[in-house]
Amino acid sequence: MSAPYVSIKRLVDNSLSAMLAAVEVYNKPQMTYRDEVTVMLIVNAWELALKATLRQKNRSIFYPKKRGERYRSIAIDDALGRVTASKLWPADIDGPAVVANVKALTEYRDRAIHLYNAQGLGAVIYPFLQQNILNYRDFMVAKFKKDLADSMTWQLLPLGAKAPADAVQFMKVDKNATMVAEVEDFITELRHLMDDAQAAGGDMGRVATVYDIHMQSQKKMSSADLVVAVSPTADGQIAIRKTDPNQTHPFSATKLLEKVNEKRTGRKLTSRDHQALCWQDQLRENPKYAWKHTIGASHSWSSETVSYMVSLTDEQYDSARKGYSASLRGAAK
After folding, report:
1. Is the pLDDT of residue 114 over 70?
2. Pick from 238, 246, 326, 240: which is nearest to 280 by CA?
3. φ, ψ dihedrals at 184, nearest 5°
4. Where are the domains of the chain?
5. Tens digit of each residue's pLDDT (9 = 90 or more) over 124-176
6. b/e map of 49-66 (b: 16 or more CB within 10 Å)?
7. How much is the average pLDDT of 3-32?
8. Nearest Cα to Cα of residue 146 among 17, 7, 51
9. DSSP labels for 92-135?
10. Average confidence (pLDDT) over 238-249
């Protein structure tokens, strides 16, 4: 018996409907169980979008059929794994980082479905929700030419009007020891996901981002930003603290090129390509890509630099090198 027919169009349409419903639910400030329902809908939206992506390339979205049972479609973790294994992530979207982001929400969803989440976890998951919406929009545009912004007032995104006003934010959690332990366990799981993404050279700006009140990216989070402080005499506190540049910009120029060349399909890049691109696009002046200590001699580079350099073609590098060489000759005259 062959697997049932699956409409790609219906998967895409239902995915968009689920994501729109998630944003609408989150923007109802007095709704109870709001965080849980939002995350469930978002995970569902991604599962449908990933299945549509697999079907678009004639990949199976079913588990092997067992005798006497009907076909079962794959769950979110397997959908993420199959899209990654088939290299179906869009060129300008970092797969490992998006996987870490979605899995963070899946972890939250699973806890809510099977039991409940400790008070305060909604505040921890908020930066992941914000970035997830933007990741989803980019993914759907790249894969299906469907823009979430066409169906809603974009000012609603990311998710709500109340964004952290400071890079350091403290949130109370329940005094109950079991609740504090649950928060610690959840934070530990998030840190593992983020560490895995960072070790793979993922774009950490795709995992979780805190926005200021003007909706401009203020910082990106790494696993080092997630800390649980538990006092025996006071309430437990979850702290999202300032980012360590050693975490956000971990690569030397040499290591940067190694990471880029591991991921690129074109020719191997050299330090000359990097220098030319820095000159052309002023990468050293952009804190998103480069960081240098005031007394340091060289710059350190972020995972976002890796993603950016991987996204460029050989022709673009050749053009940058040509312009850079011309500028050097002009300066020498």
Report:
1. no
2. 326
3. -60, -45
4. 8-63+71-152+166-206, 246-331
5. 777 788 889 889 999 999 999 998 878 765 454 444 434 443 333 333 344 44
6. bbbbbbbeeeeebeeeee
7. 88
8. 17
9. TS-HHHHHHHHHHHHHHHHHHHHS-PPTTHHHHHHHHHHHHHHH
10. 58
Distance CA 196, CA 223 (A): 10
Determine the Cα–Cα distance for residues 4 and 329; give it in Å rounded to an integer.
Answer: 64
**Residue 64, preceding bond cis, omega within 30 degrees?**
no
Query: Is the pLDDT at 309 greater than 60, yes or no?
Result: yes
Label the pairing between strands 300-301 and 290-291. Answer: antiparallel
Distance CA 50, CA 196 (A): 21
Exposed / middle / buried, residue 234 (Cβ in 10 Å: 0-12, 13-18, 19+):
exposed
The CB density around residue 263, as the number of other CB atoms within 10 Å, is 15
In this predicted structure, the answer to whether residue 87 has a pLDDT above a threshold of 90 is yes
Most distant CA atoms of the chain, gap in Å: 81
pLDDT tens, residue by residue, 263-305 = 888 899 999 999 999 999 999 998 888 888 776 778 999 888 9
What are the strands, taking DSSP E only, across the chain? 169-172, 209-211, 217-220, 226-229, 237-240, 290-291, 300-301
With tokens 């006497």, the residue in question is 68
Which SS3 state, helix, strand or coil, does residue 203 take?
coil
